[in-house]
């Protein structure tokens, strides 16, 4: 494809205001929903006409609301060159299409645009129905609007002298970490810090491993499923307590969520190696005491207690 | 068998080579990070296609000193950076997880008393 569709924006090394934006905004906030699509039986000539009328360079081919392929301007040019412009879309379209899902964060669209160099990405919803299309133009437009809004907010704060200041760390907040929804880059950071702190205490490596399992699973759960939350570690003389609290949306059926293999994670989360439905059950297995409380609409709170010192429970078979 | 010996035996590219050349106790093959957390044992090499920063977090938390990225997966720079900080080796190979696992299994079966 001749046009350069890359977006010169790092999805892991930009200012935090920008990072927050690209993780907060979803594909559905950015994509075009005024969708022009073709049918399998349309000729390439017909599609070329549609492209010209609508000033677009690529078109999804759909059937009963489902994506079956894409015809790009390249396909049209090749068809004219080789003399098969009157063939149907079905015969010549690209079937192997890279798609986005509407609840992915915008950061995914940016990395797709930079990685695959395609000009447009059809967007599917949870039910795999075609709901929109996304080009680099959509991304840049939304980002400019949102960045302007952020800059304005920051300018106002500065004028009012209320620029956000970092609250100094004190002893009790040292092992408390924030998680951000879908921030897979930052996920795991809290658990690594907790592990380092425990290592300094010369705790039995098997106990550290159990605590690491609990903190990592709870941290990843917040990144995958919640609107964001906090992960906290309290080290007491006879036990270590990991507390994970999030701001929602809450778990509908806690009993189900505790079952191994049960997960509400979608395809793209699974493709990253998460969402196997083992998080809560892993946590429960390594805990001496395990508490979970969840209210739909307000959030989930999980506490995992692991006894240390003389009270430590004997090593378990797995994970040791 | 140490990590460097394994890299040599498998003909892997060493993508992150700042690590302590520890003795490996075996390998664990999985692309599900929760599964790795639950079942991999300390000192094993992680054989996977999950090549991102979180693979390093999991390896570090589970005390796995080496990651073997299969199928020539591209290794993102932030993953290499994270592994360097944690002193975890990253090896990359064209082979599939199945092939690497088979090779390692055979190597461990002949070179040490601890095969699996």
Rg from alpha-carbon coordinates of chain A: 25 Å
**What count of helical segments of chain B does DSSP give?**
5
Low-confidence stretches of chain A: 163-173
Q: Which structural category fits the helices and strands of chain B?
A: alpha/beta
Mean pLDDT of chain A: 85
Strand content of chain A: 15-25%
Helix content of chain A: 25-40%
Number of strands of chain A: 10
Describe the structure.
The complex is a heterodimer of chains A (320) and B (116). Chain A has two domains: 128 residues, CBS-domain (Roll), CATH 3.10.580.10; 141 residues, 2-Layer Sandwich (Heat Shock Protein 90). Helix content of chain A is 38%, strand content 19%. Chain A contains twelve helices and ten strands. In chain A, the strands form three sheets. Chain A has a five-stranded antiparallel β-sheet with strand order 6-7-8-10-9, covered by helices on one side. Chain A has a three-stranded mixed β-sheet with strand order 3-4-5. In chain A, helix 1 crosses helix 7, helix 8 packs antiparallel against helix 9 and helix 9 packs antiparallel against helix 12. Chain A is elongated and about 80 Å long. Chain B is of the alpha/beta class and 116 residues long. Chain B has a single domain, classed as Udp-n-acetylmuramoylalanyl-d-glutamate--2,6- Diaminopimelate Ligase, Chain: A, domain 1 (3-Layer(aba) Sandwich). The longest helix of chain B has 15 residues. The model of chain B has no long low-confidence stretch (mean pLDDT 90). Classes of the chains: A alpha+beta (320), B alpha/beta (116). Chains A and B meet through helix 8, helix 9 and helix 12 of A and helix 2 and helix 3 of B.
Give a short summary of the structure.
Chain A is α+β, with helices and mostly antiparallel strands and 320 residues long. Chain A contains 12 helices and 10 strands. Chain A is elongated, with a radius of gyration of 25 Å.
